[in-house]
Amino acid sequence: MAILANRVKIRNNLIELSKFALFSIRKFFVIILVLVSCYLLYFSTPRVVANALLESTGRFLSAGALIYQESIQTLKWAHGRLSYFKDLEAENLRLKLELASLDNTKQLAVRTQSENMELKKLLNVTQNISYDFVTAKIISTAISPFASSAIIQAGTNDGININNIVRGKTGLIGRISEVSANYATVMLVNDHNSRIPVITSNSKVRGILTKQGNHLKLIYLKNNHDATNGEVIYTSGDGKLYPKGIAVAVISNITNEGAFVQSIENFNDLEYAVVESKAN
Hints:
Elements: H1 2-42, H2 47-123, E1 131-143, E2 148-152, E3 165-167, E4 172-179, E5 184-188, E6 196-200, E7 206-212, E8 215-219, E9 232-235, E10 247-255, E11 258-263, E12 272-278
Antiparallel strand pairs: 1-2, 1-12, 2-5, 3-4, 3-12, 4-5, 6-7, 6-9, 7-8, 8-11, 9-10, 10-11
């Protein structure tokens, strides 16, 4: 990394040198022009000598102007190339530093994963259950005071079964309630028949998420629970129908009537769903 930094420093020095050379050339020709003008103004000479001197001066200045123009163009080109390589070198250095940082992060993640596996072995923790996934297009969504469901374009031909879990962009949508060869119905989490065991993110309060009236609500909470507004609600894994740890909703209001929540997914904006089933 130090070598790359030195290269960038050398590029900067070359740019400064080109600027100094450009200034020196301009200064040289200005001095010559001033001297010649002073000579012509303050010294009287015969016409023939004056004409010859003027001719020589004109040729000299013409040649000088040509050289000056070519020098300026060359220096501008060199300055542009040096500036380009300076930026390129700096960008290359930045990317190398970023790659080095990412490599350190990767090594840390590998060590952490290895330590996690060793700790699980010591504690005799069961291994995670693997799941298969099917991504399906949502072709219809129906939300009413009586039922909330969606129809997806995937069925038994795609490995879909009743009670398979359905996820959206960020959290739980619901579960499969009916299935045919190529289509399936999803019972959404805000359906009146839906009952989802959940747990709050911070206070670890357990309850059941269901719809009562027009609102999603947590029921069967302890009287002295510590749940607060803004907490995310996750599936608790109780009952073994829903896997543990899927985001479902957010607590929006806690009153004497209970804890009311908002679904973490906007069902009207969903185009695709992910159907999850345990791998064989």
